[in-house]
Batch of 4 targets.
Target 1
Amino acid sequence: MPYKGLKQYVDQLRELDELVEINEFVDPVLEISELADRYVKSSGKALLFTKTGTPFPLVINLFASDERMSMAIGRTNLDEAANEIEKLFRQFTMPAGGFIAKMKMLPGLSKIASYVPAKINRKGICQQNIITDPDLDTFPILKCWPHDGGRFITLPIVHTRHPDTGEVNAGMYRMQIIDRKTTGMHWHRHKTGANHFEAWKKKGEKMPVSVVLGGDPVYTYTATAPLPEGIDEYILAGFLRRKKVKLVKCISNDLFVPEDSDIVIEGYVDPSEDPVWEGPFGDHTGFYSLADWYPAFHITCITHRQDAIYPATIVGVPPMEDAWIGKATEKLFLPPIKLTLLPEIIDLHMPVEGVAHNLVLVKIRKTYPGQGMKVINSLFGAGQMMFSKFIVVVSDDVDLKDYKAVADNIFSNTDINNDIMITKGPLDILDHSSDNFSFGGKMGIDATAKYREEAGKRLAASFRAEALLSVFKPLKDKIRLKMPFADMPLVFAAISKESTGFSDLLELNYDVTGLILIVVDSTVDLDDKRILLWQALSNTDPDRDIKEIKGSIIINSTAKIHPSDNFNRSWPNIVVSADETIERVDKILKLLDHGGIIPSPSARLKRMDFGGGASVRKDID
């Protein structure tokens, strides 16, 4: 169902017992984030804070369950929406040879046309209150983590328009508060907002920008969706909610926004101005994204509805709320990929530990030799899939969410010389592992069952755990070892570079063929498989950090902060709460008397904090 603003959605969450209302004051500076982190990692409910020190209540964890994510996009479940999208795409991609076949496409075209947003010639609900002397301190804006550069608006829907084509975009780019009327505008070089900015810069004119907070929660989802440039996000929103979005003209610029939004922040970016220093920010990678120069957004007017609720989210060490947003994207965007690019794809999964762009698992219906590699090459060049760092392709009998089964297929079906591809290409700007900003190594693994023409020497060979572990005897007092699966030669080794370098591991006698050794820092908990996978994917550049020795693969997934690493970029620190914040929230939870909530995740991860703030400085003379 379509929602007429956040209050209606929050009221329904309350009815369904999917909401916790907190009437004690919890500070938007650091405390709300720590509390929300505990709830999201406990599979907890959405949180509504009624006392925020401002006129506005704050809601967080809106999307952090399958039920709430489905509700947010106006459906009973994600499969329902995905099936409808697939049906529509099948209709458009079927050959339309004759007049009757073409006529059969008209209902689908008519349906899409009915979801095109409509501009209305009156003020909207979002303009019940108009503030021409704007002050961002009116809102309970979060400072999420201790080393953040300041307070950030974390769920902004940023509206821009191309000055020449008139194409509009609604994207999600975090906004750091610079002062009461100014924020940073953190759009990455690959994003549509940044492309629009460059076009306005060429024209030498100020760029109008309007930021929406709240409204129907489907608006927030579609702002994150990987739509091709030039496709209006509100068409997708209308399709999902089964009702077109009504747009109203802003008060101080000529952009249009949903009339049922909760809050609208209007203004402009001046391309002729010097950029502002923005960040650091505890990001969805689980590490701080470091400070850099970004454009300044100047606020000219703020409008809001009478019953407005301020929406927020936090990101950090996975899983976080964005994991459920990513799951929705997997479901909804698989049909277009399958029907327009790679029809052999059956399923696609991005594990939470891969933070959206580090790992993509793909299941295909294989019918000819080389098909696995074909899929890998295609995906590395397909839209936002171009940012993927690791892609693994398996055959149609594998459950992609069974990571042991995926690992078993890698060992059973992979030949080092023929089935592993290491290349270079664009990376997400937040990837910190590469020697170069937004460009580095990528790895594709074809773990499909092989045809006779693809026959090679599989990675795995028969082995005994005792024989495998004996390889590491020369370093037995300097490293810790873990085999997560007893029946396959996958080993994690934890080292401290003060006593053991990665090069020491390369000099061992690897007489057990088919070993995969992943080396992590001594601070990593070897018993936590999710943290191990997150660290391995985050800290590895496939082109630089993966070595092959005698048929075994050795991977350096340590932090590159020791002088021996010879790493020439800043390395970000892990995102965790400060001790004093943890202690304060412990007391708040006792007051709230809420059961089933885990202790602070940050307390458990503290040993992985290298100190030194958001950026870990190398000890280089």
Target 2
Amino acid sequence: MHLRPHRSPAFVGFLAIVGAAALSGPALSQNGPNNTLQVAVDRPLPPPALFIASDGPAKQLGVTRVSVEARIIGHLAHTEMTLTFGNTHSRALAGDLYFPLPADATVSGYALDVGGQLVDGVVVPKDEARRIFEAEVRKGVDPGLVEWTRGNVFKTRVFPIPPNGTRTVRLSWVAPLESEGGQGVYELPLSFENKVSEAKIRVEVVQADAKPVLEGGEPLQLAFNTRQVAETTLKDRPVVANLRIKVPAQATHGARFERSGDEGHSAGTWFSLRDQEPAPKDLPRLTPKRVQVFWDTSRSRDKAAHEKELSLLTTWLRQSGASELEFTSFSNAADKPVRFAIPAEIAKLESHIKALTYDGGTQLGSLGLQPGPQWADAVIVFTDGISTFGVEDPGSLGAPTWLVSSGSVRATPAMAALAAKNGGAFIDLARVTEAEALTSLGRPTWSLVGVEVLDGTIDDLRPGGVEPAAGPTHIYGRLRSASATLRLSWGVPGKKAAATRTHKLVPPSEVPIGETLRFAWAQKQLSVLMASPDRNAAAIVALGRAHTLVTPGTSLLVLETLEQYLTWNVEPPRTWKEMHASFVKGRSEKLAVAARLETDQLDAVAKSWAEEIAWYKKDFVYKPKPKEIAKSEELEAGGMGVMGSGSGGGGTARSAPSVERSAVMMDRAEDQESDARPDAMMAKGEAKKDGGNDGASEPAVSIKPWDPDVPWTRALKAAQPADRVKVYFSERTTHGAAPSFYLDCADYFLSVKDRRTALRVLSNLAEMRLDEPALMRVLAHRLAQEDELQLAALVFEQVLRLRPEEPQSYRDLALVLGRRALEQGSGAADLGRALDLLATVVKRKWDRFDGIEIIALYEFNRFVEKGGKLGVKNVPLDKRFIYATPLDIRLAMSWDADLTDMDLHVLEPSGEEAYYSNNLTELGGRVSRDFTQGYGPETYSIKRAMKGPYAIKTKYFSSGAVQLTGAVTLQVDVYTNWGRPNEKRQSLTLRLTESKEEFVVGEIVF
């Protein structure tokens, strides 16, 4: 069972049901979190519906049993709905279950029947849950999985529904009550028109001093008793009613308490406090003289309602009394500010904005990177709030700030939090009129400006900072003392509080057991963390785990067998006692096995590393054959010397080395040291002298520029310098859907020294397919090539979160962090983390990438050697793995495509070609293991390079994958004097499109 956005016939059938309720806005979009299904549905919501596929229109499967339990406490409602679907057919069926939730619902529970028992979903990090789900589906099993969404419609697959049998699903959610005339309203549509064999409905209003009012309860035979509980059981009849319960205002305000039944981290007495302090009617508007406007010109804003935004801005400026405006457009970086006199130059400002073009990723953090003191009295930011590139949090902007959005896709929590932090508000032009927006823009935001504990002990108090208070204020926390006193303060951020009120929190003698307030607190905390989702990714996962909550970082997963739980190390729910006990026993046995396996893994790697060291210590002396000597003398007599590489795709054949070159090679071999002892070096942080190329003339490295020769690059080359950007936008109209377009155009702008445009163009990759690791790897590698190491590291961090099952994710990030420490002076923390990441590659067993551990050890030792000087003290591998290996040449090639085999070839001066089936040459050139299933890396290493040219080639051997970029994108790093003080590196990104295609990357001449 899995949440999937879908336009299947089943969804068409679901829309027919939704049609009974008015659809507001677009009926369907896939612009929600994680590309989940988004359906805008007005109240009342349609009930859940399950459809089965058929040759014709999808058919709805009937509900045979339904159970609803609703618990209302204060302004919150916790609903649990259990549905049993019956299959009257003689064959097993698969169905799609759709269930809409209220706009601010928190998914707090999901269960699926397994062997006649409802099994609760357990919290698993989202990416891990995805991997488990996909692996189990490939086995022909369909586990249960629910991923995060807020509001709108969940869809899960239900399979199998046995012939003449049933399948049961239970869903739970927490949502605030609707507000109506000062009262809270709970509403639940029940529209099961076929006869239901049994329907149980129970509603409880907890800690209510006044009696709730039941509307629509007559058909359900519901009535509240003195305990404020209404319940009924109906049999063999349709259940069609819109259940509405009005809760008096006094029952929703004030403090409410619950004691969590959770025995772990969430145990304790949770409380909610609801209060309201209306804003003063005479709250003065700001009269700013200087206004700062930031305008998001990223690619994702291309289709926003710019005319609506411009109208709001210019109308407000004419009313505001402002005299000067500084306008800054931004996408991946902020542009140079432009000043305008107001109101005299409003028309000029309009023309400037209308002439803007929209391109590149979004770096919201660039707003906080502006030099100099804060200049403005008010700040307005027009953006969708989705930071896709670089730093996402701009921090304080130094003045009251309003964020304005007009698009259908927007990061509301992030914008609301940024505005609140800066003493302003978020204005959603997609939902409010210009007149309504004008009343908010420039007006001080009445806010909750402080929550203070005067006595008692409270943990996890939320909110912890400034929060707009246009409506009621909601405070949540966990009471650790018998009672406590809170003081709430309201006012304008940055100014003295205008109103305060104290509340004494005294729980009743018997605190009811429940989880509603805990879930509500967790949702409040989640909204805080979602203001910076990338930075807070780990905290979001921890929150979901601690509170058994579906979040953007956690999912609810149901597995069916002990083997599945043990295989994936997913702890079964404690409510499944027998399975949980079996798992605990089985896991202890498995952990013992895993410890032995890790030891075995390290022993196996140590053995392979010892073989690598033996190669490194060996003296390779090339002895030319008589025919080669004669050929060499003949060429030298003719004055031809040694032939260089050709510029064609296949390269040019080399002559054999001369006797003189061979003698030089032997002299160098005799001079080399026989042993490197980096264990002593590591302790002192001394550079190891290995008798290499230090002090000699530097080898010449020529990298062949990548020229894809495609229509867009031909158009750019033909353009006049002043027209290049215009030509780029023209070509983007036709080719902008292809990632390769941005790679090629960025390379072109770099070639003509227009770095700013190149980085903007390249950053479009971040806007194209969010959370697509292959594309993100390509982007990060290109940023690293251009020494944008901070940006590259941020992208590689995202890749690691998405693909922790792949060793390349650890290695890529480690290499960038190491470079940042060594080349840009970021310090020991970066280098220490790089060592930890590479050690992870060494310690784990990687099924498809056996041998990558040795590559990581070369890089690990290179960082160890340099780490002592930076103060890195912890080396996370034992002495068996510590050995310095400086090299004359080291080449590393990786690629973006899974299930794809690319090969690295090196034609040595001897005429011998090193590649996967000739992985050790007479000169001592060594090629690493051939990775045939994707990504690489593949490396070529030689300790002592013979004089002469080394031609570097790559070959596209085969692929079983469709590539995002329309080809396989390769990253080739060329090092000379690798691991020595005079190390040099050059890098190249290129693409090969057809199997068997070959490309000469470049040449090194010693």
Target 3
Amino acid sequence: MDSWRRGVDLVQAGDLGGGRRWLERATRLAPNDPRIALDLANVCLNLGIADPPAFERLARRYDIATAWQGLIAAHLLAGDAPAAAAALGNYLQRHCLPEDFSTIAGNLAGSAGWCAVSAAGALLAQAPPGGAIRARLDGRAIRLPERLPPDGAVLRLRVGGRDLLGSPLDLHGLRRVEGVVAAAPDGIAGWAARPAAPWQPPALTLRDAAGAAIPVMFNGAILPADDDAPLLPRHEFRVPHAELRGLLPPFRLDCGGAALFGSPLDPAALTALPRTPAARRGKAPPHVPRRRGLAVVMPVYRDFGKTRACLLALFAAVPPRTRIIVIDDATPEPAIARWLDRLAAAGRITLIRHARNLGFPASVNAGIRTAGGRDVLLLNSDTLVPAGAIATMVAVAYGQAAAGTVTPFSNEATICSYPDPAGGNPPPPLGLTSRLNALAQRANGEAAVEIPTAIGFCMLIRHDCLAATGRFRDGVFAQGYGEENDFCLRARHLGFRHFAATGAYVAHHGGVSFGAAGRALNRRNAGILNHLHTGYDALIRRWIAADRLAAARRRFDMARFAARRRAAAVLLISHNHGGGVARRVAEDMAAITAAGRRPILLFPAAPEDPQATPFPWDSQLTDGATGDYPGLRFRLPEAMDELLELLRAESVRQVILHHGLGQDASVRGIAAVLGVAQHIVVHDYASFCPRVNLLTRPKAAAPLRYCGEPNVAGCIACVKIAGDETFEGLGVTALLARSAAEFAAAARVIAPSDDAARRVARHFAGVVPEVSPWEDDGIRYRLRPPPRGRRRIVTIGGIGPQKGLEILIACAADAAARGLPLEFAVAGASAEDERLMAAGIFVTGAYEEGEALGLIRGLEGDLAFLPSIWPETWCFTLTEAWRAGLYAIAFDLGAPADRIRATRRGGLLPLGLPPARINEALLAWQADSGN
């Protein structure tokens, strides 16, 4: 990314301030890239800016030593030594101590003392003065060991009854190796890394099926950072065919007793497996088989909290006489092993324990063998199963002869995700999960929709499908990912079908097991899956495009929406373009909620390709965030009766029309049909200007300018040249007539400023809008007078042609041409960032609600310039400038001009002033003593 590279280059050249600005821009363009975030946090640290949360987010999510070290330094810079010591303790528990870090550890630990492990595995410990270190292994007192005990043990080092910093040591984390191996044209290849000591390659051994072992040599190459491991240096290795000659496959890549992801593997066996078109279907079974008992098969590896919550929910949810089979796949967490032992001793589970980690597919196969011919419910240990969900799934499984597998809805279940079918929905707690399951049951009952593959997080397999298809191919898919899809496709080829139980819902945390190597394994296995089942990805894409679960999701949305019903509701109608309108709508919704009524927002639902889809779009409902009910979409006017029926059921007592852009014109008549009062809020001039913002082009290629609000004939001529930006095509005369009728029928017409109210009143006789300012200009701000001499001018918000983009570029060009001591920056974004930056104008990138103040202050500007060329009805960015301590310069037009004139917090320029004159004003303007 260019912004990232420019930031790094400036930092390396010694310009930390400039580098910081570019890195901040890069984080706005790529907010989820941890590499940029870490670079920015380190630059701020070097600038003396303490930002512990920036490092903590990275340290907690990625557990990378550099992030923990930065967190320690940030706390120290902030003067918070206890927090720095706590961060040091977290660091020492799971990361090997570099040689240059022991002094820092000793200074921070102070009277607590500290312990750590070297990269070579030696135990290091320093007691406080006069203290004696005592060691306890699994609760038993032992002599202080020189080297680490095996995984699974709990080693505590204590002085005077208190743990040293770093104790108890995370033995598994200190030894853990991330990596993946795959078949390659010249043998096998992959990467490995030891997160606790990322600077050195880990020790790897290749073992064959007969026990022969050879060391794996790394080639010294560090693979480029990617999404699999964005902060972890990955050491590359290759084992050519010549070194494998004479060895017996499958080959296991051993790293400290654990198999590297992707192994054991047999490259020759993979290529010999038959290939079958994924879409092929076998002949469906003619009859529903006799029912068998049910066994839940649940592999367990990490995360005691989620595992415990999963099993406790499961105990309350399973039907009578269900056998619960738990496979402890060599968990590194002693708490999990102990708890499972207690459950097994009490007869609540059947426990299978692996001496070493074998992975999900092998663990599932062990559970299936123990299930003894029952139906099998495969369940991840990070799920929450509510009462009733399993019964619904079983009913679906025996409701159709061809059913092989059944999957419920879930917050995170790829094609079975709800409410957003793309997934990423937050996992609900058990209470909410139970309510969602009840609503799914109410909406869809025992309905079933065929899907191309089950989803392995919660997958019911009918016993006849399991007997015919066989077990998971653990020798192909290693530790997991793709094995259930392979199973389902093999079952499909035998004639079985896979169904979504749309009346069941199970919560799923997702993505907690494998980390960076797991993502790489996922990618590896996806390639194997598509190789074995040709056209698999295309099959899934076709199914997603058909969206066969849409009707079930819609019914679910309807049930969930109805469950939140209140005694009365208010309908708000708006566009989906964000900005000041969205901010005002959110404030209205909060006020309606506070008054005890339910706010319902009707907005245009963005289609898959908004740029290629003309208005009107479907209308969508929500009572909160716009993505809460993606199924509540209405194609208007055809679906108007259905929409009205829903609104009547919600007891809508009032309609607030904020904006109709993007929606079918029929939404404007909803209040009249419902027989309720409508309030109209003025945000722009779409009521009488098809151009919306009173900007015109005298000629097709001419720049935009304020039209001066001519008569109807002038408006008609303007639209003919410049176009209709309401995208309705009504024409000026029809638009005026419609708006006049709407204003006359409205209970209230509300404008945010006197200027906006005057403009509306001038075009509609008898209409006198109420003025209700969006913000309180009586609030006092501490403004900084701009210095004489060089000035940095800050423009705020989303800058487009109507907001003065061309003027800003022209001013920057004039300043550069004349060598003026002016520097321009944009706190925000535009559709033409590259043009702005090419003109020498720094652009921060878009900001979220609540971020503007910090962003403006970070630019260290001297004066705000708001070059909008249309008569804005309010202007939230003017307030942001004042909040940031900046006087503002604007054109003498619209509400911003009235506000600046009334508050004396800036200066006004004549509209149409040439760029050179604007620049001279920006350099010369001074706040008078009355401000």
Target 4
Amino acid sequence: MSKNYLKTAWQNLRSHKAYVATNTIGLAVGIAACLLIFLLIQYETSFDNFHKNKERIYRVAAATKTKNGMNYSQGSAFPVAEALRIDYPQLEHVARIYGRDNQQITLLNDQASAPQKKFKENVFFAEPEFFEIFNFPFLAGNPKTALSELNTAVITQETAEKYFGDWHTAIGKFIKYDNDKDKVCKVTGVLKNVPANTDFPLQVVLSFKTSKGEDGSTDWSREDGSLNTFVVLPKNMSSRLFDNDLKAFVKKYTPAEYANHGYVLQPLSNIHYQSEFGTYSGRTFSKALITALSLIGLFLLIIACINFINLATAQAVNRSKEVGIRKVLGSSKKQLIIQFLSETFLITLASVVIAVVVAFIALPVLKNLLQISLEIRPDFPLIAFLFSIIIIVTFLSGFYPAIVLSGFNPIKVLKSKFTSKTAGGLSMRRVLVVFQFTVAQTLIIGTLIVVSQMNFFQNATMGFDKDAIVMVPLPNDSARLIKADALKTQLLQLAGIKNVSISSFSPMDKASWDGDFKFDNAVKKSDFNPDFKWADADYFKTYNIQFIAGRPYYPADTVNGFVVNELMVKKLGFKNPEDIIGKKINIFDGNIVAPVVGVVKDFNGSSLKKEMKPIVLGSWEMVYRSINIKIQPQTAKQTLAAIEKLWNNTYPDFVYEYQFLDDKIASFYKQENELSQLYKIFAGIAIFISCLGLYGFVSFMAVQRTKEVGIRKVLGASVISIVYLFSKEFTMLIGVAFLIATPLAYFFMHRWLQNYAYRIDIGVGIFLLTILISEIIAWLTVGYQAIKAAVANPVKTLRTE
């Protein structure tokens, strides 16, 4: 029986090729978009799920009380782990891992005369228990002991093959960290390449003991954002109970003046979703975003089904006599419903096949756009998803048209007494078209707001000059500062260079030096922490930072004066910037004390996602890490080549690299830019599918009003008036959809903008542009159909009727 239904369905579909093609394309596009969103969400929700004890792994993260609420950080103080081991011996495992990006690794050759290969890698220092907590598989070496000794290293298979050609030969080889003769490390383990869905981008992992002397500290008041402490709770211990214990733990060890500092447990399962803490990968994907994408996928699928319903019920006019004859010959309503659902099933099946092909083609574009690893694998979740799509779409798309078609009165349809009410009426179609365009216009408004916010980030005045500035990191060499001064002198002699400065950070930087201080001989420390930026006296000239009071500090190796920004002046209670000049700032408990010698205009020291912070600048050569070079854009290529040559002559043992400051700033908003591109694509898909539905709606109207149009033309109606007759209907429907979409989009996008300290105002122009885009696209979609109906020969039309 089912074979006969499918065979008949196939024959019927072959008779209506245009209808089938239009419906299949609409469904395929919607399903393909839904499939890509499913793959993206599946990937983002799979992070670090492969660890055996993932439900009991927690990160001990910093939580600091401030006037504006709680501030969280992934970091912890160095002595926290040891104290946890002593105070809580019942913890199954405690381990620290310390990450440093872009570090130099040098291969030690067997032959002294051979050139040494140098690489830049993300380097981690980890305690041996780290690989007992996290199940990263080893290809060689013992996970429990690989990092137990000083100067030992574990590298990934990919890294081993890059270094030594064959990972099987890596064990026992030596690598040198940061060109430090005291940190020559023996490879004791090879990891299987870490999967893409982890927040631990391991490449080179050195023993934690190797980091001591450089990064070790017994200071409980200083949390290091690069240091993560992980614990595995025993099965009988609740995280809530241990969180409460942490309060007493912190109070026991932390100095009283740091009472606002504390720690909380962050489940491993939350690390990938909570951007306020941070990750080593530098990338998070909020649960709110997952929900938003899920809803977009669902709505795209629904409007694709609505498009099917509109086209199917419009096609009902052409199939009315077929249904009438079938009923006269004895077909029951149930049989007709099954027959029409069979047709829908075949169209859906074809659409899913096409959607999978489209997804295969589009996947590389999506991977490149989001810089993530996605693939279509025929695993159970994907097969279950596609099977569910086929079932859901078949019933969602086919059930209503099947009811309408099977419900035709055979006497009426055979006598050609067929009305819009017979085919389900226009009211239902109006509702469906309004729903489609509500979704489409909501996405358009959201996309326009996201794009506007990204443009604001890119074009905002930040209080300093970011154009044509090249940043070159300094190596961690014992003689780097003496060499850096000489390099600076040589750079200034190049014709294409305007200014050069040496500093710890750029004016706008992800990294920061957040610290407390005492002001003007006060006994107590300040109740807020500014950002300290250490730079030489040429920093202000290089970045064109403007003074409003005082002067720059004098050139020196150590601090001889501080320059602060306007916000720092206000936070300290001064109305006139001149009044702070001469007041002293005391940091590190009196180890550094110097007067304020200048005040500069406010500039953003970090991403515009965050509130501007008070900033203190001073000269402290010992902590400089970067050379900042202002070049002339006209001769950029030649100048960059000259810079590289000078740098290589100065630091021949280190890898040269550089970055333009504007590229660095753009990277702060990388994820937002990626998502704005994604929203553009989804908005385009929603419009495309909605227009197919609109085309079906107008086609139905044209068939239903054929006789009316003929009579109007006989009575003297012009082509323009007939076109207006059709256009006013869908123009009104799009207007109604716009009235619904506007408050919805405003509500959700207003909430989204609250995530950013500096944001655009949602103006009327965005909404006007949305309705204009919608109407123009709609007119282009159905204009031909409306004009075709308007210019039809009324004599032929009325004779047919």
